[in-house]
Design goal:
The chain has no helices and 29 strands. The chain has 300 residues and is an all-beta fold. The strands form seven sheets. Strands 1, 2, 27, 28 and 29 form a five-stranded antiparallel sheet that branches. It is globular, with a radius of gyration of 18 Å.
Length: 300
């Protein structure tokens, strides 16, 4: 296995914290400390389009194709609803979370946001207003994963725990304590629906059985915080991004390390890697970093 580096996407004036793939397209969105919401195309990395600028640092973004709206969450807990038909118009905004908005998910008729205040909120897309909120923790909700088969969310928090919330009842059904010390930074359900993979501020990669919380693997995966982890479409490859500037590729069956993309003068990122995207049909990995660049890697 080898990943070839292609020209990076350059244009942001600050650290890039989040990426979001635009459904069924070869385009994606990025946001970061400069407050810019930028649209990129895989077909033309040199041409990024600044769709809008918000007054805060963008931590999370989510595109809703049915209404051509992008929702962005900033460092101060504000939720912005940006109409991409008129993106330069001042967006509808709610100072909803008391701290940063770390995750935004779009599912069916609703949007869900997770905040640094430990609150998880369901929103109406039609009215662009909050419908229901629940306090998960007194610490930040750093990551959210959704399992369609179980119709539940897994939420990783800065108290080190993973909480499970039923989507229908909007109630916490289970919690696992001391999963990572001090914080769970990223979560993903494996496509087999039997396992959950987590990454923490402790730089450990852990694999759990969902049915009973049994810890299957503990892997010292990086030198510093695992900021993000994702799987490819069939679930055989796991990608991890870290504050140690590296991206690592793992066999998701046995969790053996296959490849490490390390920051050097000629290749890779020079600062923390914060977010990843995987375009399955193109076999492309996209990475966002504190170094103001978006990486572009093709598996060959």
């Amino acid at each position: 296995m080898h990943f070839k580096s292609y020209p990076f996407f350059n244009g942001h004036q600050g650290a890039i914290y989040t990426l979001h793939q635009m459904e069924n397209t070869t385009s994606f969105l990025s946001g970061g400390s400069d407050g810019w919401l930028v649209k990129w195309s895989l077909d033309n990395p040199a041409l990024g389009i600044n769709l809008a600028t918000i007054p805060g640092q963008i931590l999370s973004i989510c595109y809703i194709p049915a209404v051509n709206v992008c929702v962005a969450g900033d460092l101060n807990g504000v939720i912005y609803w940006l109409d991409l038909n008129n993106p330069k118009i001042i967006p509808k905004a709610f100072a909803h979370h008391k701290k940063g908005v770390f995750s935004i998910l779009y599912l069916g008729d609703h949007l869900f946001t997770a905040g640094g205040d430990g609150v998880f909120t369901k929103w109406s897309i039609d009215h662009q207003t909050p419908l229901e909120s629940i306090r998960i923790s007194f610490k930040a909700i750093r990551s959210v994963a959704y399992n369609k088969e179980k119709d539940e969310f897994a939420l990783g928090c800065s108290d080190g725990a993973i909480y499970f919330l039923d989507r229908t009842s909007f109630m916490v059904t289970l919690s696992w304590s001391a999963c990572h010390l001090p914080s769970v930074f990223s979560l993903v359900y494996h496509p087999d629906n039997e396992r959950i993979i987590s990454g923490g501020r402790d730089a450990l990669l852990k694999v759990w059985y969902r049915k009973n919380g049994e810890l299957i693997h503990v892997i010292p995966a990086h030198r510093f915080t695992i900021n993000h982890l994702i799987l490819n479409a069939n679930g055989n490859l796991l990608f991890t991004a870290s504050r140690d500037t590296s991206i690592r590729v793992w066999d998701a069956l046995n969790f053996k390390l296959l490849l490490s993309i390390n920051g050097t003068k000629n290749e890779g990122h020079q600062n923390s890697v914060n977010k990843l995207l995987w375009f399955d049909s193109q076999q492309l990995l996209i990475s966002a970093s504190d170094d103001r660049q978006i990486g572009h890697w093709k598996m060959i």
